[in-house]
Amino acid sequence: MRTAFIDTTAALLDEDPRTALVLADISASQFASVGHRHPDRVINVGIREQLMIGVAGGLALTGLRPIAHSYATFLVDRAYEQIKLDLDHQGVGAVLVSVGASYDGAQEGRTHQSPGDVALFDSLGDGWTVRVPGHPDEVKALLRDAVSTDDRVYLRLGEQRNRQAHRDADRLLVLRRGGANAPVVVAVGPMLDPTMAATEGMDVTVAYTHTPRPFDEAGLRALAGTAVVLVEPYLAGTSSAVVSRALAEVPHRLLALGVGQTDLHRYGSPADHARWHGLDADGLRRSIEAFLGSVSG
Amino acid sequence: MATTLTTDSGARLPGLIRRLTGDEKHAPSAHSTIDVLQVLYDRVLRVTPDRVDDPERDRFLLSKGHGPAAYYAVLAAHGFIPDAWLDDLAGPESRLGHHPDRLLVPGVEISSGSLGHGLGLAVGTALGLRARGLHDPRVYVLLGDAELDEGANHEAIAYAGATGLDSLTAIVVDNSSASYGWPGGIASRFTVNGWTAETVDGHDHDALYAALTGHQPRQPHLVVARTERKG
């Protein structure tokens, strides 16, 4: 996904004189050649993430369309107040593109992980579009769409990917249809494949989206029976409030699965972390069966 | 190139500031910045109320957003906002709060208040103007000496100096309010990163004018305006 981001961004810099890229050393070498072509619009500020977002805000104030990029924990967690004030409060937009968010950097440890990034954008109100592609082939169109607007867009790129791309999944896209009033399982981004594997043989509807914000509330209302399961690749419960709002008029139960809140103080691989957080197919199946069985059984 | 403005807002400012009521807490901040703001808007900045959206205008960014009474008074004196707005500072219907909001006040380039944001935004603005081929406008950003405690400033100081961002002028109003001070002086904190710097009496209009127009090619410029210690 990072390669798709780099290639598409380089093309946008060539095509559109409004596009600008702000880096804080991360990925700077991959953008060196396009930087030589556009030295005024490819800006590496060094390891200075607060300045990276401040510069993005200043560029936007002059009418440019900035893309800022780093590891999620540096881009979002570290520069949170700059996002809040240098972008949102100034009334300007940017495209923030992260890598590594939840536990792609498992071997790097907690300092390189940001499972709470999407929740942080939620804390800023409803002004942010959040895109969490599940396949590299979804990235190009999402990035091009983001750069073509002046909106505030967060593009969260991970190393985990589904086998197949679903480019048109900005709303809930049904990929497995259960019976009437079957429970609905919503899989976000790279959680689709483990969710499909986990629900094999269950009478559930599985819907996929790469765009959790704005969440497809109308689509959920149209699908929902009385039980909803969220499977998100970031902090568990991040979308619980959105689902509660969407289904405020409907009696329902909700199971919100995602990355746990606890700092595990462990290294290992992303697959290890998926297992520890119950986000591999076996863990998801156990959680979903227990949730559905707790009422029907 | 430079069009020297020769308006004199001095006679009107004391009365305008008096209209801003209920701001006892921030009064010292207003007194420390009034002369710098007056010289900027009377003689330096190429911006007028009919040019607040002109890409070719100079930009003035008030980073030190607390104590904006002098700023509002100068904006009123130059016709950016009606005088009557000054009579209801931070009221429920007021456009003027204790920290300025660019979406509410014509001529205000950035919303500020939380310290340490203006210099980064100023660097980005200067870079954006250059990328758009707008080489005439300058970007001025006003900070306080205590504001320099915020680490974000030092990211911007180092980067602007290293890259020779010569359309940028920072002004630090030094009223000795930083808890631990700046050993060796504020100017040296910037010049070590390649800025030019001048330190002047913050109430001496001619000295301020000379310093505010004293920038050199290929280096960002700093003006330290010394004023009395914050009361």
Automatic annotation (TrEMBL), chain A:
SMART domains: Transket_pyr (SM00861). Pfam families: Transket_pyr. SUPFAM superfamilies: Thiamin diphosphate-binding fold (THDP-binding), TK C-terminal domain-like. Coiled coil: none annotated. It comes from the Bacteria. Residues 1-164 form the Transketolase-like pyrimidine-binding domain. This is Transketolase.
TrEMBL record, chain B:
Keywords: Thiamine pyrophosphate. Residues 26-227 form the Transketolase N-terminal domain. Its cofactor is thiamine diphosphate. InterPro entries: THDP-binding, Transketolase_N. Belongs to the transketolase family. PANTHER family: TRANSKETOLASE N-TERMINAL SECTION-RELATED. This is Transketolase. It comes from Micromonospora tarensis. The lineage of its organism: Bacteria, Bacillati, Actinomycetota, Actinomycetes, Micromonosporales.
